[in-house]
């Protein structure tokens, strides 16, 4: 049986829609990042897969603009403490299926998740 985990924001309608699409149920480990943000080890794992912290950083987060972060970030390592301090800066959802990890809600990403789970369409 596949090991399945999803990091999401319970109040996010996109996360809820995707959870329903991919069949998240009691067999999944579900982590609400507002209550239990991503830990450093997991964030480092995402960086290893995606090549940078910036790749898993959400520039859509409201605080990104309000805090003027664009001007404060000069190198990739600057994103790490921001994500660890503020859950809204993590692109979501983050989905783990066995040894694969998927970040974000693009159609291609969700199609890859579905394929790894054996879900059609």
Number of helices: 6
- Annotated CATH topology: Glutaredoxin
Compute the number of strand runs: 4
The average pLDDT is: 94
Question: How can the largest sheet be summarized?
Answer: 4 strands, mixed
**Based on CA inertia axes, which overall geometry fits?**
globular
Order of helices and strands: EHEHHHHEEH
Stretches where pLDDT is under 50 for at least 5 consecutive residues are none
Going by CATH, the homologous superfamily would be Glutaredoxin
Question: What structural category arises from helix and sheet content?
Answer: alpha+beta
Task: Evaluate the radius of gyration.
Answer: 14 Å
Beta-sheet strand percentage?
A: 5-15%
Strand order of the largest sheet: 2-1-3-4
**Secondary structure: helix percent:** 25-40%
Quote the distance from N terminus to C terminus.
21 Å
User: What is the CATH C-level name?
Assistant: Alpha Beta
* CATH architecture descriptor name: 3-Layer(aba) Sandwich
What is the count of structural domains? Answer: 1
Describe this protein's structure.
- This protein is an alpha+beta fold and about 120 residues long.
- It has one domain: Glutaredoxin (3-Layer(aba) Sandwich).
- It has six helices and four strands.
- A four-stranded mixed β-sheet has the order 2-1-3-4, with helices on one face.
- The longest helix has 11 residues, at about 40-50.
- This is Arsenate reductase.
- InterPro entries: Arsenate_reductase-like, Thioredoxin-like_sf.
- Belongs to the ArsC family.
- Pfam families: ArsC (PF03960).
In short:
With 121 residues, this protein is α+β, with helices and mostly antiparallel strands. It is built from six helices and four strands. This is Arsenate reductase.
């Amino acid at each position: 049986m596949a090991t399945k985990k999803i990091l999401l924001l319970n109040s996010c309608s996109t996360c809820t829609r995707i959870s329903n699409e991919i069949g998240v149920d009691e067999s999944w480990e579900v982590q609400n990042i507002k209550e239990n943000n991503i830990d450093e080890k997991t964030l480092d794992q995402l960086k290893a897969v995606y090549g940078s912290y910036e790749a898993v950083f959400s520039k859509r987060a409201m605080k990104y603009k309000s805090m003027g972060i664009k001007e404060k970030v000069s190198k990739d390592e600057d994103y790490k403490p921001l994500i660890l301090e503020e859950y809204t800066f993590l692109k979501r959802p983050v989905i783990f299926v066995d040894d694969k990890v998927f970040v974000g809600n693009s159609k291609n990403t969700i199609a890859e998740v579905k394929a790894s789970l054996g879900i059609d369409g």
